[in-house]
Amino acid sequence: MADEILRVENLHVSVEGTPILKGLSLTIHRGEIHAIMGRNGAGKSTLANVVMGHPAYEITSGRIYFKGEPLENLEVFQRARAGMFLSFQYPAAIPGVQVGTFLKKSVASVRENPPKGREFRKELNAAMDQLSMDKSFLSRYVNDGFSGGEKKRLEILQMLLLQPHLALLDETDSGLDIDALRIVAQGINEVAVDSACLIITHYQRLLDLVKPHYVHAMIDGVIIRTGGPELALELEDRGYDWLEVTA
Amino acid sequence: MMYHQMPIPPRSEHLWRYTPWPRIHPTKTDDVPSADDVIFSNDGPQVLNSIQPSQDSQGDIARAFLQAAGGSSSQMSLNDESEPIHINARASGHVAVGHLHLDVKGSAVVFLHISGEPEWVGLHITGNLHPNAHLAFGFINELDSNTKFLRCEDWQLDRDSSLEHATLSVGGFRCKSDLRTSLNGTGSSVRQSITVNADGSRHDDKHVEIHHHHGHTQSDLVMNSACGGNSHFIGTGLLTIAEGANKSDASQVFRNLLLSEKARAEAIPELEVLADDVSAAHGAASAPIDRNQLHYLMSRGLSPEEAQSVIVNGFLYNAFSNLTNKQLLEEMRTRLTVHLECELKR
């Protein structure tokens, strides 16, 4: 099997004293796409946020390894520079900061040999064309007044430019129409070739376009079942109650 | 009324609550020191003529004091000006005072840059915008960090005229500004943006009055301040809509970003609406940096310091977003960028 990118071992996480993750384990290798499905409040977004290092989440026990190295001492920006990327469910708006300026700064911070000047613009134009994004996006303020679909496209644009080793995609498909979903899926597939991907979703429709190697069903802070793409179809068909009964 | 005849205004007055007159007066309140001239100059063909300063203090002690102190007094007449005009106001000596009047009959873009290292500077700017005149005015305060600065402005707008007014306030140690605009003719409008970057123990007090005397007039005020260190920013607004000034449309937004535990900011918009059929909105917010914004930028590889700097820069830039004149917008943003880059290198 290819290189190990992410290993989560028996992870317990609390938010303001409330346990959310209760012993979650997961390993993802390079080139693999994993999908996590579960009810609202199951802890899916918590997993993505805690892997990325959000300070609001407290790891009470368990460990997270990125490319074999423990993550706990790395701050959020250091994780990004190490090659981790989170596509946010609700990306923050930064009024007054133009998308073009922000992308340039971000690429310069994360990539080891960032493209400069014309080279950067060429790469940016190609990525924007791929995502059918108008160039006027670049002069708008980051996520300020963006529709749900525009926010998700900007997240995927960043992912393409930052070229992460691990992409965490938190409900990237929500708020997207069918055409936008297809475009976004194309972007994910491109990055997934040489990276590890963890897709958090409620719906099968994204997984029709981005074929996961593994699908995990999550209930109450733990992964209760792992299977292939057929599990996603079964979950869409039967819901989650039957898993609780089986467990 | 002359300055010496005026009583010291009490702190109960909205205008003088946070920076009382004795705190901004250059010496002791019964004293009118001999003032040096603020030297006005411009590189373009427009002529700055010497004139007698206005004797109308509007019953305001600051204006009366500036009249009594004397100093330089210049006027510029503007018609349709194809290129932006840059007026430099250079202050020096112990106390320096200048009066500037702009008479606008066409369309013009004017930038006033004030700089120098005197202990105290007073500036009174007045402007008449004739019917259908359009002025974009940028004020850039780059005074020395030890200078006390008193600034009064009075703008009179006739029918169908428009004023776009932007302030970048980054200089001076203790600053008090009293900026008044009267919308005297139907169809007149003012857009005003103020950006304040305060650090150390800088004290900056901005009072903005906009008076809708006629109907079908518009005003839009945005005031953003970023306060670090022990600095203190005060933004007070007075928006009046006179009886019968129907179909007036007015908006005021004050936002303060607090960058340290000791920084303070006040945002107090006030409305006096005497007409029935108007749209008037105001809002004020003071808060530290949004943790979600910080986290988002850090998740894109920016260090905590870089992320904070990007958020603050964006916040300050954003105050100018209500401007529509491109030359004004670009120049103000360029000046802000230069200032922020200099700050970063310190």
- Would you list the SSEs of chain B in sequence order as H and E? HEEEHEEEEEEEEEEEEEEEEHHH
CATH arch. level architecture of chain A: 3-Layer(aba) Sandwich
CA radius of gyration of chain A: 18 Å
Give the proportion of residues in helices of chain A.
25-40%
Assembly state here?
A: heterodimer
Could you give a short description of this structure?
Chain A has about 250 residues and is α/β, with parallel strands linked by helices. Chain A is about 40% helix and about 30% strand.
How would you describe this structure to a colleague?
- The complex is a heterodimer of chains A (247) and B (346).
- With 247 residues, chain A is of the alpha/beta class.
- Chain A has nine helices and twelve strands.
- The relative contact order of chain A is 0.18.
- By secondary structure, chain B is α/β, with parallel strands linked by helices.
- Chain B has one domain (3-289).
- Chain B is 16% helix and 46% strand.
- The longest helix of chain B is centred in the C-terminal third of the chain and has 20 residues, at 326-345.
- Chain B is globular and about 60 Å long.
